[in-house]
Write a structure and sequence with these properties.
Length: about 400
């Protein structure tokens, strides 16, 4: 009874652990819409009282960009109002905003004004930001430097492009925005703002040089170790203006790691409990079969003496363990169903009752338990009935 209960509980834990582990593996394979390697991010807190005029803010940001580009190994520099995964990293909280937009000339419009208006996440970004973050340009291009008389550019994500432009690229389309007109110059794969496993609202990127004079978060793409740039970045900003603090210095790898911390902990904990239970059930079966062989040594010797082959006797002993395992697995079926419901909130892209995962888990449990039974059961292969019969 103890062994049967162990098998049932182990299958429940293994099924939960398998589902969470497969979910975590899928999360690791998700394309976040940016490239984290070699990117250093930090906040430059520009006090508006130090830059009372918009022109002063723009000029200071230009000086910051020039100073950062001069650092050894820096390939590109950009700044944004909303860093990817900023919800997962509270120190990089979103500075963008949400707004209702329409695209009058879009072929995806239905003619219903309400349905043709979409709430988007508006994110201001300086020229060079897409390159610094390694964002995936799907169509068109990223921002070009603003010059006098040039159009005000916008970049949209794939989600917004599919909604309004299902038949072709939206390059050149106009978006009415706060009394002005933005021209779409590119489409990017959506960088995940909140978490890695789901899209957020459609994103509309506006060129910061056209609108915003205070960009809080900067990103540097370098072919050096980003950690090695931290002291140089602080020194460069301090030389420009010692009153401006640099804070929340993190690499994008660290931010991604932080976003994965909770799923990783869940997978490790549940997987650890499941493996511990698997070890216990294997030990239980090993001990039970070993004791059974010792107790039944005389019976098994008589069977061999009467003509039973050693292989048939071995199957007899293994069948004892297999029956207990089978009973335990059948009893565990309702528990497996319940365990899937309990871990549903931890799963990403995996059904709580995914047949492939549950089949693999059951097969693995069966393989381990049969191996635990086979090792002590092999003693029957060495049974010699002659000494026992002479003794009797």
């Amino acid at each position: 009874g103890v062994v049967v209960a162990q098998v049932a509980l182990t299958l429940m834990l293994l099924s939960a652990g398998g589902l969470v582990t497969r979910s975590f593996a899928r999360l690791l394979a998700v394309d976040p819409g940016f490239t984290a390697e070699g990117v250093l991010t930090f906040r430059v807190a520009m006090d508006p009282r130090l830059f009372p005029k918009r022109e002063d803010g723009f000029a200071f940001q230009d000086r910051v960009e020039t100073a950062l580009r001069a650092l050894t190994g820096v390939k590109s520099v950009g700044a944004t109002a909303a860093l990817p995964l900023s919800v997962s990293a509270p120190q990089n909280s979103i500075w963008g905003w949400q707004e209702l937009v329409t695209i009058p000339s879009a072929p995806g419009n239905t003619g219903d004004a309400q349905r043709d208006s979409v709430v988007v996440q508006v994110i201001a970004a300086r020229t060079g930001y897409a390159e610094s973050m390694g964002m995936r340009i799907v169509a068109g291009r990223a921002f070009e430097p603003a010059r006098a008389g040039t159009v005000q550019e916008a970049v949209i994500d794939e989600q917004l492009a599919r909604r309004f432009f299902p038949t072709g690229p939206p390059i050149g389309a106009a978006i009415p925005f706060r009394g002005k007109s933005l021209t779409i110059v590119g489409v990017v794969k959506q960088p995940r703002l909140a978490n890695l496993h789901e899209d957020g609202r459609p994103q509309l990127f506006i060129r910061a040089e056209d609108w915003v004079s205070y960009m809080p978060v900067w990103a540097i793409k370098s072919d050096r170790d980003p950690q090695a740039l931290i002291a140089e970045v602080r020194r460069a900003i301090r030389q420009l203006d010692p009153r401006i603090p640099v804070s929340s210095v993190q690499t994008m790898d660290e931010i991604v790691t932080d976003a994965l911390r909770q799923p990783r902990i869940s997978a490790v904990l549940i997987g650890g409990f499941a493996l511990g239970a698997l070890l216990l059930v294997a030990m239980g079966l090993f001990g039970m079969i070993s004791g059974s062989v010792v107790r039944r040594h005389g019976e098994l010797a008589v069977r061999v003496a009467l003509g039973a082959s050693h292989q048939r006797t071995l199957r007899l002993v293994l069948g004892e363990g297999a029956l207990l395992v089978f009973i335990g697995m059948v009893i565990a079926i309702p528990g497996v169903y319940a365990a899937g419901g309990l871990v549903r909130g931890l799963l990403i892209g995996v059904s709580p009752w995914d047949p492939w995962t549950l089949t693999a888990v059951a097969a693995g449990l069966l393989l381990v338990t049969m191996a635990a039974c086979y090792v002590p059961a092999r003693r029957v292969l060495r049974i010699d009935p002659a000494p026992l019969l002479r003794q009797d």
